Amino acid sequence: MSTAHKRVSALLDRWLASVELHARYLALDDATYATVQQWPQHQRPTKWVVELARTRLEEMKQQLAARRDQGDELFAESLELMSFLTNLLGSEQIDRFIPLATKKPNTAASGTVRRPRLKSADDKPAPRTAAPPARTHRAPKPAAPARAPAAPPPADKVIATVVADAVRFIGWGREWPALAPLIARLADRPPEAEIAKILRANRELIEHQARHSGA
Prior knowledge:
Largest sheet: none
Strand content: under 5%
């Protein structure tokens, strides 16, 4: 069995276990579903999407096993390459996906673990205002004009989206230097330079979530 075959087989098993959990979550109301896992931003998958994903995953596992028995090692490598190209070039509606679900409880929702705060890449100290002129017998000097305020940081939603993208790509085996260009190609994402700043500012949080998302 080739290394590529082992990686693809493990990924399919991981996805299938996730889809089985989503099938159980179909009975939950929206409020309960929102707290059962630490979800990235996404549209909740419907029943037919979950069932379709499970059917296609089982078919893919059968094809992978059949090609392995035939000694075809290029099939698994081709699947890995297509997965990479799809993420790089074909992801337009990124909110429409089935997020990875694990059996690990959502400890952040229960309050036992404090979720780290998302830090903005542009966090800066508040600008100082000019001090008022001292009172003298002379006519007071006009106050110096206040400094222009610093540019507002990116919206929390943008930061959260970039962080979720980075965690997902790391889970798929992407290296850190490739994250900014990959995320910048997705729809409705900020420029690559701004993404790189967000990644640097939240690297500890991203790596923490990536380690625990596959647990």
